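Next up, sample data:
>
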Amino acid sequence: MEEAVARRLEQELGIRAEVEFVFKFEYRAAFKDIGTEHELCWVYVGRTDAAPVINTSEIAAWRWIAPGDLDAALQEDPGSYTPWLKMEWARLRATNAI
């Protein structure tokens, strides 16, 4: 799985990094009035100093943000973020993986 994650990281963000499995989770979350997601997700962490080169055929919008800044943004404007990000960001922070 690590090879697939590293491959997609390079294909979608133009970044090469060693990745490490942190945890997997299943969630079901409603998102506004759009609908409900129910997924099984695997979470990996990697580190690099390389700048991302976004593959716009894969990613329509993105934002590079420092962990502390994301903590603040989630507190200030939680409605701008998906339910799964809020749930799993808290878990990532608790594991000290970020």
Observations:
- Strands lie at 19-31, 35-46.
- The chain has one domain: 2-95.
